[in-house]
Amino acid sequence: MIASRVLRAASGRTPLIQFLGKRSIPESIDHTPRLHPQDPHPSLPTSFAEYRVRASQHGPLTGYRSASSPITRPSIQPNEGEHFDRNELPRRFWRLRISKAEMQAIEDGAAIIA
After folding, report:
1. Would you say 86 and 93 are in contact if contact means Cβ atoms under 8 Å apart?
2. Measured between alpha carbons, how far is 33 from 48 in angstroms, rounded to an integer?
3. pTM
4. CA dihedral defined by 51, 56, 58, 59, rounded to 10 degrees?
5. 85-105 per-residue burial string, b: 16 or more CB within 10 A, e: under 16
6. Angle of CA points 74, 78, 84, to nearest 5°
7. 29 close to 20: Cβ distance less than 8 angstroms
8. What is the pLDDT along the chain (114 residues), one digit of tens a residue?
9. How far apart are CA 48 and CA 66, in angstroms?
10. How far is CA 29 from the centre of its chain?
């Protein structure tokens, strides 16, 4: 017989995972709102509007604009000597056209056609 199996059978096996057992739901849970211990404000907000005034997630939530007051942004135009599209450049900078024979050679992998 294999020695490791004999030793394992003789010593008895205890699992490494300790199971917690059956869970029990507490009878009463307190859901009343409370301040976080590190909250800088002395009291909870009384309304959502008050919450928005003092809330900050990734910065203050002030400066919110509604659809009735849209943000006006300047139009984007290229500066002198800048171009947004390659076709606005002189013709020598345009993409080169590939003939059908060249495309067929590329697709076939034929390096003999030059």
Report:
1. yes
2. 14
3. 0.27
4. 120
5. eeeeeeeeeeeeeeeeeeeeb
6. 120
7. no
8. 577 777 777 777 787 888 888 888 888 888 888 888 888 888 888 888 888 777 766 665 566 555 555 667 777 888 888 888 888 888 888 888 899 988 888 888 876 655
9. 17
10. 34
Q: Residue 56's beta-bridge partner residues?
A: 60
- From 45, 23, 21, 20, select the one nearest 33 (Cα to Cα): 45
What six digits make up the tokens of 59? 């910065």
* CA separation for the pair 9, 67 (Å, rounded): 75
Tokens, residue 61: 């939530």
CA 59 – CA 48 distance, rounded (Å):
18
Q: How far apart (Å, rounded) are the C-alpha atoms in residues 32 and 85? A: 60
φ and ψ at residue 9, rounded to 5 degrees: -70, -35
Euclidean distance between CA atoms 35 and 14, whole angstroms: 45
Cα–Cα distance, 82 to 76 (Å, whole number): 12
Instruction: Please state, in angstroms and rounded to a whole number, the distance separating the CA atoms of residues 89 and 83.
Output: 7
